């Protein structure tokens, strides 16, 4: 026998019809690490690199070493990521909220000063001063609604680029860990 309770519409704990707002509202309560994903610039962009802030980065497998992240197909970075053979993954430190905001801002020249970066392995833009960075070979782009889940194999990186605590994203803001 199943027991149900009529909590009334809008009551705390009352079910809400699934949709974009329910998902956004639920995930505002989920703290996530902040990463910046970069890709070399395709010829169509004049060779200009692309990048965006992501909180969807996931470690998928240790052997082989795989990561994944989501990107909207309407994102200005999607064309570069769609063509890239390799991408960069950068884990940000708690004091790097300005860098995260730059890569999250639509229309910003994300690679202009004060952003510091160099061309790394496979020509991937590697950001300076991050906690850790990885260069990964893209092995799959899986359709998922209005996004693609990109799966990539780690081929190079520095997992201890510097010491520090991670930048987090929670409730629509960048945050730091508290002791």
Write a concise keyword list for the protein shown above.
single chain, 179 residues, mainly beta, Pnp Oxidase, Chain A, 7-stranded antiparallel sheet, 3-stranded antiparallel sheet, 39% strand, globular, disordered N terminus, NADH-dep_flavin_reductase, Split_barrel_FMN-bd, FMN binding, EC 1.14.13.166
Structural class designation: mainly beta
Strand content: 35-45%
- How confident is the prediction overall: mean pLDDT? 89
- Helix proportion of residues, in percent? 10-25%
> Unreliable segments (pLDDT under 50, ≥5 consecutive)?
1-9
Rg computed from alpha carbons, rounded to a whole number of angstroms: 18 Å
How many individual helices?
3
Query: How many strand segments?
Result: 12
**How does CATH name the architecture?**
Roll
Q: Assign the CATH topology.
A: Pnp Oxidase, Chain A
Instruction: Give the overall form.
Output: globular
Termini Cα gap: 45 Å
- Number of separate domains: 1
Q: Please state the oligomeric state of the protein chains shown.
A: single chain
Largest sheet: 7 strands, antiparallel
CATH class: Mainly Beta
Q: What is the name of the CATH superfamily?
A: Electron Transport, Fmn-binding Protein, Chain A
Strand order of the largest sheet: 3-2-6-9-10-5-4
What's the order of the H and E elements? Answer: HEEEEEHEHEEEEEE
Organism: Streptomyces fradiae ATCC 10745 = DSM 40063
Domain Flavin reductase like: 27-176
InterPro entries: Flavin_Rdtase-like_dom (IPR002563), NADH-dep_flavin_reductase (IPR050268), Split_barrel_FMN-bd (IPR012349)
Protein name: 4-nitrophenol 4-monooxygenase/4-nitrocatechol 2-monooxygenase, reductase component
């Amino acid at each position: 026998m199943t027991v149900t309770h009529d909590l009334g519409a809008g009551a705390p704990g009352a079910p809400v019809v699934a949709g974009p707002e329910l998902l956004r509202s639920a995930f505002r309560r989920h703290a996530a690490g902040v990463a910046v994903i970069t890709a070399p610039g395709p010829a169509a962009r004049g060779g200009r690199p692309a990048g965006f802030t992501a909180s969807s980065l996931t470690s998928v497998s240790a052997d082989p070493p795989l990561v994944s992240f989501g990107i909207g197909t309407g994102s200005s970075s999607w064309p570069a990521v769609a063509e890239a053979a390799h991408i960069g993954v950068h884990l940000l430190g708690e004091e790097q909220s300005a860098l995260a905001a730059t890569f999250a801002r639509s229309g910003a020249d994300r690679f202009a000063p004060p952003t510091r970066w160099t061309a790394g392995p496979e020509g991937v833009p590697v950001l300076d001063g991050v906690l850790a960075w990885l260069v990964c070979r893209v092995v799959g782009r899986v359709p998922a609604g209005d996004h693609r889940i990109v799966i990539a194999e780690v081929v190079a990186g520095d997992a201890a680029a510097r010491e520090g605590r991670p930048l987090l994203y929670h409730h629509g803001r960048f945050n730091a860990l508290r002791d």
